[in-house]
Amino acid sequence: MLKKVQRRRNKDEDTPTLLVEAAAREFQECGFDGTDTNRIARRAGFAPQTFYRWFGDKMDIFIAVYQSWVGEEFDRIEQLGARGASDSEFIDVSIAHHRAYNVFRRSLRQLTVQNPALRKARSDSRLQQIQRVKAQNKTLDLTTAEVAIFLFEYERLCDALADEEFLDLGVDESAVRSHLAKLYKRLRKQ
Known about the structure:
This protein is mainly α. It is 78% helix and 0% strand. The chain has 2 domains: 2-54, Arc Repressor Mutant, subunit A, CATH 1.10.10; 60-189, Tetracycline Repressor, domain 2 (Orthogonal Bundle). It is built from 11 helices and no strands. The radius of gyration is 18 Å and the shape is globular.
């Protein structure tokens, strides 16, 4: 209980941020269906009614967690790019990020096909990702379709690794990592 009180008094963090952080942990541990807003609020150190001062419902905070996840991914990729990281380093970071949120991402995949608001948020995020990739690779004159195909394939493979789907098939992770590296190379050659 002492940690929650200390966190609430930290001037660098505000209530919505604390709620999103708590929701991310809840969604990762319990998935969307196994989480409720009261537990999110209590986990953040607040009374349950505090949740509704900042978010309309569980889907609103789920979208906020997704946006936070994407922001983390962008930050990591930009840091790697700034220091000239190898493709292997990009792949390691991407897979680790997907693994850290694998239960959350399972809910994300399921809910994207069921919920129009989440579908739009995800589509908007992907369009931003496409624009960033195109901006970072101006000399390659990449089309939106080329980058979108790369992103979908890359994302799905990282999710499959995070969920150990390849392990279930007896496929060694190194084969998947090799394919991810080929995707990077193919994108740069287009």
